[in-house]
Specification:
Elements: E1 3-7, H1 12-23, E2 27-32, H2 37-45, E3 49-53, H3 59-69, E4 73-76, H4 83-88, H5 90-115, E5 120-126, H6 149-167, E6 170-176, E7 179-180, H7 189-203, E8 208-210, E9 216-217, E10 220-221, H8 222-234, E11 240-243, E12 249-250, H9 251-262, E13 272-274, H10 292-298, H11 306-324
Parallel strand pairs: 1-2, 1-4, 2-3, 4-5, 5-6, 6-11, 7-10, 8-13
Antiparallel strand pairs: 9-12
Helix pairs in contact: 1-8, 3-5, 5-6, 7-9, 7-11, 9-11
This protein binds NADP nicotinamide-adenine-dinucleotide phosphate.
């Protein structure tokens, strides 16, 4: 039975990843930082899911966890995942999303040396490592030019994974472009929009306040991206893989799609307001990935298109409102 360790198991991607691996029959271990009711409920229902309390800032604890679990596969999904929050906590971001990667990879390396077994590691890297990219679309050879504490920490994690790969560890990275689901927290612009769209549709009034409406992003469906990480772990060669749809849409288009899906109709624009407070200090206008390598080598392809991603999120938010009534 494959034994797997996931950091960030309580997050959007960690939950989907745990579910996929449990369905496949794996024994899943997860690092849990704060007490999360959903993860606990899943663990209670699932004898092959084991949760371990701990903190990515605790290097000794991480080493002991990897040594104790002895995973065949290690997925590092934990850390600060919000660009905006990383500006509030730049040092913590460096620690959790940067330094912790080195700690985990070193622990995996030591386990591999001790056991003589391959430890397959996947680092959840990010399109934010490209920052103000010098080319579009971005691929695995695009130079790293992060423009936020989050992007800088992820760039370090990305680079240290390559260093351990050079040393002989199966350390793959998935350079994840934005991916969404109903499990996205409302602190992210996409879920903020879908939650607001549902509320506006129910109340028949109200607005959603946004920053740069023209920012273009490449938005995919979270479970697809998790599946890519599993494929990267199990691929013969460890490598960097851009995971993206290759299609972009603006924040305005996201808002239009969400408000229309919620049933607001042609006057959707009356419900969108620009608030300069939500503009980022430095923001890439266009982020779009070229997933050719993942398609070619991992046989990976996105299965849910933009309208359906937005639609599933809006439907979920409408459902939540109905349940609350
Ligand atoms: P998420 O929902 O924000 O989850 C982050 C996870 O990290 C949570 O489980 C959180 O647990 C955990 N964590 C935070 N601080 C921790 C600490 N001190 N010790 C241990 N765990 C801690 O993120 P996601 O959207 O699933 O993303 C997964 C990974 O992909 C992240 O590394 C992110 O940077 C990367 N990524 C995501 C996207 C995207 O569009 N979603 C795009 C590019 C890259 P608590 O809640 O208990 O603190």
């Amino acid at each position: 039975m494959t034994r797997v360790l996931i950091t960030g198991i309580t997050g959007q991607d960690g939950g989907y990843l745990a579910e996929q691996l449990l369905d496949e029959g794996a024994e899943v271990h997860g690092l849990v930082h704060t007490q999360d009711g959903t993860a606990r409920a899943l663990a209670d229902a699932h004898p092959r899911l084991h949760l371990h309390g701990g903190d990515l800032a605790d290097a000794e604890g991480l080493r002991a966890l990897v040594a104790g679990v002895e995973p065949d596969e290690l997925y590092n999904l934990g850390g600060i995942s919000s660009v905006a929050y990383s500006w509030e906590q730049p040092v913590l971001t460096a620690q959790l999303s940067g330094v912790a990667v080195a700690v985990l990879l070193q622990a995996a390396w030591e386990l591999q040396e001790r056991s003589g077994r391959l430890v397959r590691c996947v680092q959840a890297s990010s399109s934010e490592i490209f920052g103000q990219a010098d080319r579009s679309p971005q691929d695995e050879d695009t130079p790293l030019r992060p423009v936020s504490p989050y992007g800088a920490a992820k760039a370090y994690g990305h680079s240290i994974a390559a260093a351990y790969r050079g040393k002989g560890l199966h350390a793959a990275t998935c350079i994840l472009f934005n991916h969404e689901s109903p499990r996205r927290p409302v602190t992210f612009v996409t879920r903020k929009i879908t939650a607001a769209a549902a509320r506006i549709a129910v109340d028949g009034r109200g607005t959603v306040e946004l920053g740069n409406l023209d920012a273009r992003r490449d938005w995919g469906w979270a479970p697809d991206y998790v599946d890519a990480m599993v494929r990267a772990a199990r691929h013969t060669e460890a490598a960097d893989f851009v995971i993206a749809t290759g299609q972009t849409h603006t924040v305005a288009e996201f808002a239009e799609a969400a408000l229309r899906r919620a049933g607001v109709g042609d006057d959707w624009a009356d419900h969108v307001e620009v608030n300069p407070a939500f503009l980022r200090p430095l923001d890439a206008e266009v982020m779009v990935g070229d997933p050719s390598r993942a398609r070619r080598e991992l046989g990976w392809t996105p299965t849910v298109d933009f309208d359906e991603v937005v639609g599933r999120m809006v439907d979920h938010d409408l459902e939540l409102l109905r349940e609350g009534e």
